[in-house]
Amino acid sequence: MASSELAFVADTYIDGRKIGEWSREGEPKIDVMLRSDVRDEEEARRMLEDAPVATKQGDVVPFSVLAELDTKLGPTVVRRVERRRSVTLQVTPPDNVPFEAAIDALQTKVIEPLIASGELPPNVTINLGGSAGKLKAAQTQFAWVLLIALLISFFLMAALFEDFLAPVVVLVTIPLAAAGGVIGLRLVNQFVGEQPLDIMSAVGFLILIGVVVNNAILIVDRAMGRLREGASIEESINGAVADRVRPIFMSTFTSLAGLLPMAVAVGAGSELYRGVGAILLGGLFLSTILTLFVVPSLFSLIWRVRSVFVPQNPEPAE
């Protein structure tokens, strides 16, 4: 007897099986179901064991003779993803737990120990989907956006400066700003309110790329202008910092004053933009202070090394 025929008998006694359709003229069809009137699980099991089944040889035997019944927990519907059977477990973290922290805890405390224990069959895989999958995709896309923003900034400044080393000096302020952004976010999280580093807050780091380079551009552009006028490297750097320190502080302090309410404000909906404000506030403040020391030092170092290999004003041949 085929297994499909046994499955038909079992399905008829447990859930019911469609055996045909009935309809009147002009009316929709109605499914005709064959099922047992027993709803109790134990009684349905005993009835299935004693159910008469006709074999191909013409004999009638109980169902329990042809198959062994074993009750186990299983899904009501077999779901498939890319033609493979799948089981979906929905996990909802508590409201006070950041979503990314919940994903990390699920990965490190549940999935990785389960895989390391060897209890999973070799053909079983575990994938995070839903909001967790979207978060990973968003993080990957955001990393590419940051990289593209850095490349655009580099090539744009290289074209404006007509030099490929000057943008390197300017872009060194971005790691300084990133450190300041993290410090600002930690301070807000400590003294103002809980503010996790989510995708919305991370946009602040993207904005910093276009903001913090302005101060370094002022210094580098002025120093290169003095070098073209014939000044030495020391005179160019000192003069550039002295000429640009006042406008740098003026523009920075006005920006910080405008960002301060955004970072420390409390109230309904403030958590949406508080992270961005904290990152911008801390990144802009720290990068401005360090720019006045790091950028001149790096500019002087690079131009001294450059002058050794590429003389700026070679003596004309006699």
Helical/strand content category:
mainly alpha
The pLDDT mean sits at 81
Note the overall shape: elongated
Q: Could you spell the SSE succession in H and E letters?
A: HEEHEEHEEHHHHHHHH
Which range does the strand content fall in? 5-15%
The DSSP helix count reads 11
Draw up the topology in text:
Layout: H1 3-14, E1 17-22, E2 30-34, H2 41-49, E3 52-54, E4 60-62, H3 63-66, E5 79-81, E6 84-86, H4 99-117, H5 131-161, H6 166-171, H7 173-191, H8 199-211, H9 213-228, H10 233-264, H11 271-309
Explain this structure to me?
By secondary structure, this protein is mostly helical. Helices cover 63% and strands 7% of the residues. It contains eleven helices and six strands. The strands form three sheets. It has a two-stranded antiparallel sheet with strand order 1-2. The chain has a two-stranded antiparallel ribbon with strand order 3-4. Helix 8 (199-211) runs parallel beside helix 11 (271-309). It is elongated, with a radius of gyration of 36 Å. The chain starts with a helix and ends in a 9-residue tail after the last helix. Mean pLDDT is 81; it is low at 314-318.
Give me a quick take on this structure.
Helix content is about 65%, strand content about 5%. By secondary structure, it is mostly helical.
Keywords:
mainly alpha; 11 helices; two-stranded antiparallel ribbon; 7% strand; single chain; 318 residues
